[in-house]
Description:
2 domains, disordered N terminus, 5-stranded antiparallel β-sheet, 267 residues, alpha+beta
Amino acid sequence: MDLIKNMKLDIISVISGIIIGVILGVASYLAYTSIFHESSSEFYLFASLALIVSPLAGSMISALLAKKNKPAALLITGSVILFTLIVLSILSYLVLPLFFYESVQLPDTSRTGAHMPSGLNYPIPGAGTGTLIAEDNYSNVVVLSDYDHSPYASTVYLINKSGNKVLWRQSFNDDVIAAAIDRGTLNLFHDKIGYYINTENGEFVKTIVRLDNYWQLYTSSNKTYVQTTFETSVLNADGSVDSHQQMYMNITALGYFICGSEGRIMK
C-alpha cells in the first residue's frame, strides 16, 4: 500500500513539474513574440529560456517533490517538457503558417495574352519593355514575358537604379512569378522555389535554414487562386535569426498583375 502511495505521489510530482516547465517555456515564447516582437538579437536568449531553462526548472521541481526515484522523475520530466516544447515550436514555425495567408482569385484562366497595367511598364536595357513588379532604394525588379506564346516564358531582371545596370537575371518557362523586397533582399518565387537576392549587388543571400509557406497558384472548388502573402523564418549565415517575417507579394500570373498589398488584380 505504501508503494502504491509513493508511486502516485511520484506521478503527481512528475505531472506538476511538466505543467510548470511547459508553462514557463510557452511564457518565454509569448514574451519573445509579444513584448520583444521577435527581435533577432533576443532570439537565442528566449530560445535558451524555453528549451533549456524551462525543462531544467520543471525537472528540479519534480525531483524536489518526489519521495523516491528522484533521478527518474528528473529525467522523465525534463524529456517530456523538451519534447512538448519542440513539438510546439514545429507547429509555430512549420505547420500553422501553412494555414494563414491571403490570396486572390484569378479571372477566367482561359483568356490569353497580357492584361498588365501600362503604368508599370519599364524599359529593360537591351531587352525590351517589361512589367515593374517590385522595387527598393537600390534596384527595380522587372518581368519580361512572351505573351504571344503560351505558357508565357519569362525572364526576371534585377536592375540597379543608379546605373540602370542589370545585376541579375533568371529565366522561367511561364509568367507565374511572385516578388517582395524586405531589408535589401529580393524574395522571388517561381513554381514554389525561392530565390533570395541582394538588391544592392545581385548576389545570392547566404542562409543556413529558411522556412516559408508560399504555395503560389492553387485550385479550390474549380477556381484558381494565387497566394499574395507569405511568411518566412530564416537562420542567416551570420547566425542571426529572422522569425515569422510576413510580406505582401506582387505577382504576375497567366497574363495578370496582382498587387499583394491591395489584394486585387490591377488593370
